[in-house]
From TrEMBL:
This is Putative NrdI-like protein. Coiled coil: none annotated. NCBIfam families: PRK02551.1 (NF002714). InterPro entries: Flavoprotein-like_sf, RNR_NrdI. The lineage of its organism: Bacteria, Bacillati, Bacillota, Bacilli, Lactobacillales. It holds the Pfam family Flavodoxin_NdrI.
Length: 154
């Protein structure tokens, strides 16, 4: 039987969606995993109710924070909260293998801070991170880490 994994994400500017699409292609060529992507923004937009996942997943989250420097202020998440709501829905958080953060390194301490906050909130690891749309070596590195995580649970 084919192993299944969800890639659950929210993308506002298209960067995270581009990364998830390229990662899905990587998996199709490197594994026999069944990949299903869930764009939480689409669920909200289409008013599709959240649902419990039936397989493990990895979450992907860009960083959108309200002002500040990410150290002593400016660490409040904005715009991406529906992803947290989806992860918190029923027992979804228990199926999460970890989170991959993205952002812009120009924001220093705020770079991928939201992913770190999710990891702390839900008790799963930050698997890795990438900047903006990510490079091909980011796709391959993160893809291999996810493959290893899936292999560990089976």
């Amino acid at each position: 039987m084919k192993k299944k994994i969800y890639l659950v994400y929210i993308s506002l500017s298209g960067n995270t969606q581009s990364f998830v699409n390229r990662l899905t292609s990587f998996f199709q060529f490197q594994t026999d995993l069944e990949i299903e992507s869930v764009h939480v923004k689409d669920l909200v937009k289409e008013e599709i109710p959240f649902y419990a996942l039936d397989a493990p997943f990895v979450a992907f989250l860009p960083t959108y924070l309200e002002g500040g420097n990410g150290v002593d202020n400016g660490d409040t998440e904005i715009l991406t909260n529906p992803l947290g709501d989806f992860i918190a829905y029923e027992d979804n958080h228990e199926r999460c293998l970890g989170i991959v953060g993205s952002g812009n390194r120009n924001f220093n301490h705020q770079y991928c801070l939201t992913a770190k906050q999710y990891a702390e909130r839900f008790g799963f690891p930050v698997i890795d991170n990438f900047e903006l749309r990510g490079l091909q070596n980011d796709v391959e590195r993160i893809g291999r880490k996810i493959i290893d995580l899936v292999d560990e649970i089976n």
